[in-house]
Amino acid sequence: MTEFLVAILLGIVEGITEFLPVSSTGHLILASELMGYDAAQWAVFNIAIQPGAILAIVVLYWRTFLAVFKGLLRREAASVAFVRNLLIAFIPAVILGLAFGDQIDALLENAVVVAWALIVGGVAILVIERLVRTENVLGIAGVSTGQSIKIGLVQCLAMIPGVSRSGATIMGAMALGIDRRTAADFSFFLALPTLTGATVLQLYKHRDAITGDGLELIAIGFVVSFVVALVVVKAFLAIVTKHGFAPFAWYRIIAGAAALAWLSAR
């Protein structure tokens, strides 16, 4: 299999899984292993193509971004609270990412960690869905400062590959009493600074190892993940509205168990 085809396939995986509570990084690691490639070799690529999926959020929610920008110019309370909450939730990831970057990079090479994290995360989703009662929060601006800090701390769990950034933030928000739609929106918008920052950091750290061919592969994965994510986000919201998060939880448990069995049998 050529590297260009691998880049396309990984771009598809990224676009499908980035906003689902199933761990895009975990799936990219497992996909690399499944295709017989060294996960460490593709670790930078896997992170660098994430902004492609993030761009899909910018396109799908452009009216929201425009309204917030105009509101900031007018110093409207709702727009200020919107940006403040996202920045507050972003800070813990910055601190821990800079402090434990090498340890996080090491985890990105461990497929067994991914498999176990998928299973444990799936069980956690089922428990939260069954036990937690949520209330309408009236959008991201309605989330309190304290809730934003806690969501940011929970997001840091996703530094363990397989946990899922979107899953951690959505479930963390719901555990704080925030309704499903607001929790999902908060997760989508928080992805912009979080994943963009992670990409910039990784590209800077590994700048000497990235060749012209490497940048070409990243560009391919970026475009593919963007196109796929455009379709997936709307489908995800429709499934969550009708069925909740349980289908994704059971998928995680089954996929994690299958991955463990496959890794053990190799």
UniProtKB/TrEMBL annotation:
Single GO molecular function: undecaprenyl-diphosphatase activity
Swiss-Prot/TrEMBL keywords: Antibiotic resistance, Cell membrane, Cell shape, Cell wall biogenesis/degradation, Hydrolase, Membrane, Peptidoglycan synthesis, Transmembrane, Transmembrane helix
Entry superkingdom: Bacteria
Listed GO CC annotations: plasma membrane
Signal peptide: none
Catalytic activity: di-trans,octa-cis-undecaprenyl diphosphate + H2O = di-trans,octa-cis-undecaprenyl phosphate + phosphate + H(+)
Topological type in the membrane: Multi-pass membrane protein
EC number: 3.6.1.27
Localisation: Cell membrane
Entry keyword Membrane: yes
GO annotation terms (biological process): cell wall organization; peptidoglycan biosynthetic process; regulation of cell shape; response to antibiotic
Pfam families named among the record's database cross-references: BacA
The keyword Ribosomal protein belongs to this UniProt entry's keyword annotation: no
Main location: membrane
TM annotation in the entry: 39-62, 82-101, 113-132, 186-204, 216-239, 245-265
Family as reported in the entry's similarity comment: Belongs to the UppP family.
Additional record remark: Bacitracin is thought to be involved in the inhibition of peptidoglycan synthesis by sequestering undecaprenyl diphosphate, thereby reducing the pool of lipid carrier available.
Function: Catalyzes the dephosphorylation of undecaprenyl diphosphate (UPP). Confers resistance to bacitracin.
Protein name stated in the entry: Undecaprenyl-diphosphatase
Lineage of the organism: Bacteria, Pseudomonadati, Pseudomonadota, Alphaproteobacteria, Sphingomonadales
Gene: uppP
